[in-house]
Amino acid sequence: MKEPSKKSEIEYCKVCRLHHDHGSRHKYFPRHKDLLSTFLDRFRTKIADVRFFLKNPSVLRPQEQSQNRVWCVFCDEDIVELGSSFACSKAINHFASSDHLKNVKQFLSKNGPAMDCIDDFRISEANVATWRRKCQSLGSEDASSFKGSCEQLSGTSNDIHNKLAFKTMDKIENVPAQLINSHHSSDVLPLQYNTNKYQISHSELPGVAHYGSYLNMDSSHLPLHTDPPSNLPGNGFGKHVIPSRSKDYPSSQDQERKQIKGSYSSPGEVGMTSISSSHSSDACGNVHSGAPPPWLDANDGNSSNVQLNQSDMSSSFQAKIPGNTRKLNPNRVGAAWAEKRKIEIEMEKRGQTMNSKVDAEWLPNFGRVWQSGTRKESRKEFEKEKRKLVKTESISTESEPVKIQPYISKRARRETGENGSG
Amino acid sequence: MSSLLLKTLTKKEEIDRIIRDTIDEVLVLRFGRCTDTVCLQHDDILAKSVTDVSKFAKVALVDVDSEDVQVYVKYFDITWFPSTVFFFNAHHMKLDSGTADHTKWVGAFHIKQDFIDVVEVIYRGAMKGKMIVQCPVPPERIPKYNLLYKDV
Question: Do B89 and A335 make contact, defined as CB atoms within 8 angstroms?
Fold first, then answer.
């Protein structure tokens, strides 16, 4: 006699996406095996993409950061490339980490057939080291064009905040550190750095002390770490913030250098940075002096271009409008009437007085309820009825009131007639 | 309240003008009295939906108590209030809702979406050249009435 199968607890299989009580036997079921192969293949393609970037490191622009994300199915987490300057850098580091390896082993033991494919889902340390070296060499090439990358890194759009911040950052670079220090005594410092979320996150309390201490240091003295970003001191955000200060990311380092030079915040003050006022007063003036804003200044020279552009726009719009009407179905209901009416309206607008007096007797095209036949017939019938109604009304008003007399029989009338004559 | 949002027409000239000036858009004319409760409900639905359909439809109310308008009341064979008549490019659009009268919608709409669906179906049919369209409202939400032929 067969032994009754053991009743196991209900578990959820990530691969098959269903609950089952098969227990440990589940992973040998053919359906599970099929689904597992597709599941792992999907992940293999993802990791192949990451391996491509491992072999060919490339700079990651901020606008592409959100697109460059990977979901690790073994660790059940989304790896987002926020604040990383090279494509898939976080993903590469994740796949090389020991936690990921542990999770992969666990997954394969629970779901998988064998452990021999474990290397497919992780990146070895050697590969990561070669990748880092490649990044470094790439970074040194980029140092000459760092300004461009700095612009990209500091903001995605060319809005005024970034423009101004960039201008000020340029000027800050030239100002010696002592001048910045001189403003330490004043209580209220002019706002020299845009205080959006990203900037505030940089100057959080644990990091503040670092900034303060770096102020008097030359850029060459900046410490160079080789730790991965997650191990940075004073970084309370895990993976998601502050570009690492390691040698691998010289472009971001330069950006930080600029930020550090430009920012000063007293301990205890959270989220506030200031820059010296000497460079803030530009030759062009500012809001308080009543000077025009920079975008208008730029447009003054291009006003004629702007006008041209506007006329171009209007002509393109006009070109669009007839395009729209051309698209209207010529077979639509009342198309001919509509075209005629549009022409009439246009002529009226131009001032040509047409016979726009609508006939008081005009009636729209209507199919009546109790009529059969064409709509023209129904209109004709209606008009006929109207005429009849008018006639009967007129007749009734014109007729004299009928006199009511008592009935006299023929004999009586004859007798009265004979009596009258006789 | 809805009369503030929707135009109320009391003269034949006004009706003529609005029919002739509405080009390539559905014109919805409601014939009724603003004091009647069913009319009020109907007007409320119309007023709420007018912005949603504004790109392809116009809505106007016609007061049936006005003398000038009686010719249209007779021409359109309006016996029940509120009655809604649909036009497209000055051509009357018929709506087959399973009732006896295909030339108009009699009664109030139950929900806003019903009205929007009807106007959309009429617009689509008119753009394809159809003068009669199938009503998309389910039968349970179509008001029932008896149509009398010459008071029979």
Answer: yes
B113 touches chain A (CB under 8 A): no
Query: Model's pTM, two decimal places?
Result: 0.42
Range of the domain at B42: 2-141
Q: How far is CA A395 from CA A166, A391, A392, A402, B67, in A?
A: 94, 6, 5, 14, 22
Nearest to B89 by CA among A249, A331, A414: A331
- Terminus-to-terminus CA distance in chain B, angstroms? 37
The owner of tokens 């503040």 is: A208
Question: What per-residue string of b and e applies to A125-146 under the rule 16 or more CB within 10 Å gives b?
Answer: eebbeebbebbbebbeebeeeb
Assess A363–B contact: CB distance below 8 Å, yes or no: yes
Radius of gyration of chain A (CA): 44
Q: In chain A, whose CA is at the least distance from the CA of B124?
A: A332
Residue B147 lies in a domain: no
Residue B137 lies in a domain: yes
- What ipTM goes with this model? 0.84
Residue numbers in B near A341 (CB within 8 A): 20, 23, 89-90
Residue B49 lies in a domain: yes
Tell me which DSSP letter residue B76 carries.
T
Phi/psi for A15 (5° steps) reads -75, -50
Q: How many domains does chain B have?
A: 1
A181 closest CA partner among A143, A212, A148 = A212
**Residue B126 within a domain:** yes
Is some CB atom of chain A closer than 8 A to the CB atom of B148?
no
Contact present, A215 and A260 (Cβ < 8 Å): yes
Question: What's the CA gap between A57 and A69, in Å, rounded?
Answer: 16
Closest listed residue to residue A248, CA positions, set A59, A63, A69, A53: A59
Buried residues in A368-399 as b, exposed as e (16+ CB within 10 A): bbebeeebeebbeebeeeeeeeeeeeeeeeee
Among residues A37, A283, A257, the alpha carbon closest in space to that of A146 is found at: A257
Task: Give per-residue pLDDT as tens, A349-403.
Answer: 887 766 556 677 777 878 777 777 777 778 888 888 888 887 887 777 666 667 7
CA gap A111, A15 in Å, rounded: 8
Q: Using CA atoms, how far apart are residues B14 and A357, in angstroms rounded to an integer?
A: 13
Interchain CB distance below 8 Å, B75 and A358: no
Angle in degrees, 0-180, between the axes of helices A160-174 and A146-154, rounded to the nearest 10: 130
CATH number of the structural domain spanning residue B25: 3.40.30.10
Alpha-carbon distances, residue A342 vs A91, A397, B51, B74, B130 (angstroms): 62, 45, 24, 30, 21
pLDDT (tens digit per residue) in A249-273: 444 444 444 444 444 444 544 556 6
- Other C-beta atoms closer than 10 Å to the C-beta of B126 total 26
Tokens of residue A328, six digits: 């209207």
User: Which of B 25-64 lie inside 8 A of A, CB atoms?
Assistant: none
With beta carbons under 8 A apart, name residues in chain B contacting A354. none
Nearest to A59 by CA among A142, A163, A166, A165: A142
